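Dig into these lines:

——
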Amino acid sequence: MEKRETINNCGNVKGRMNRGCIEANTLAIIDSAEIHKDSQDAKDDRMDFLEAVRIASIVPENGTPPTKKMVEAVFQILRAGKSLELIMSSYELLNEIEKRFPRIYVSESSGNGSPELVVIEEAWLPFMVSLDVMSSEKETNRRKLRGLFDPNGFHELITGLAEMAYKTNSQRLDTKFLGNMLLFQYLVNVLEGDFLARISMYKESMNWNFLRECLINMLLASKRVNYRVLMKECLHTICGLYQDYAGIRNEPDSSDEHSSENHNTDVAIALLEVQRTTCMAMQKLIIMIMEIDMSKQQANMLGLTTRSDGLRIPLIEIILDELTYYRKILPRFLQIFNDPKWKLEIIVQYLLKYTAKPVRTRRSNGPSEDSTFLGVLKSFSDSSSVRSIIKKLNVEVIQLLLAHAFLAYMSLTSQQQLPGMPGCNEAVIDSLSLVEISKNVAAAFNSLREADKKIQISSLGKEALFTATMIISTS
């Protein structure tokens, strides 16, 4: 069940007076001419405004929610901010408002005790998405002028991040790029709040409407977005930004030694951390999309979807294709992508592209063991199969995939995400013990040694082998 609520802004007299004083300055903050002023007085005014909103809404234990115009003004400061102080302060305040006054949440019904999806109608939203294809062009243009993100604008933001991800350090060392990364992180936080509430209700009720109206689903369903290109850009942004804070950028930037003379040192210090958190936000977005894909597949099998839901290539297929054709980004992706459930799923599906396919009969209904991690490991028990896999891949890539898959499997078992547990993908995790998996991992590496006498086990491969050996010896 979904319930729409309105915000009660009839607080005490003092609260209304404070809000009135703040709103008196709001229109000046969001004015298209004023927002781009870069004088010290303008900066001080904006900092005072942010502090006033924080004191009125966040600091008090029973603070009143800021109005739409107040939140919009904070958002405009983040979008147009040219100083590190303004960018960071507005970003932090927006996230505090999102956490303190969520637009959507799940609550227990006062009647029968069943959960309800509560949507606050008056809450401000940085997106303009709708299932109503007849929304007027005039309304759309009006909202664009307010800096809101439509599907195309969201795509353009990610495109900009993808383009900058592979630029030199000095080219990326500016507040605009840093501000765009924080802007993206905030938008993902908003999407996550909406997604978590809706997928919780979907799993509880199996009502596909909850996810059909999910913000992410509506963004990706727009015909204005090239979905495949957008997802590729997300993947390459993660891999590009990861190079810097991991210290593995291939080409040294000769201008870096002069960067401190030309750029704000504070921005340089903040940039590495913001790049790391942007990678995490991008991973969060990717995982949410894959969860929606999996839920949609389930809903489709149950006959809950309609033709209006359209068809969309599952994101995991796009990731597999991209990692196949641009294999040089595979090590970076596996290093940065740290969700064990989806990492294991991706690796298993990647290896299945190169292993021998089993012969299926008409009685072969239901999931096949060959599609699990154990099934992939068993394909390495056959010498001819191993030689075939090595020809298609190479021993370095195979080691990398096996090691990361084993470590992801161990992480899942340590979290007790075994078959039947919430959030577990039973198509990948086997019911066999970790000891059995460890034996098969060790056997797979031995098969690689036998097939290639000159093989050199990588450091990650040695770590996986040592761990597997220890588990077997202590069993």
Q: What stands out?
A: The chain has three domains: 1-107+117-124, 136-338, 340-473. Residues 179 and 202 are 34 Å apart (CA to CA).
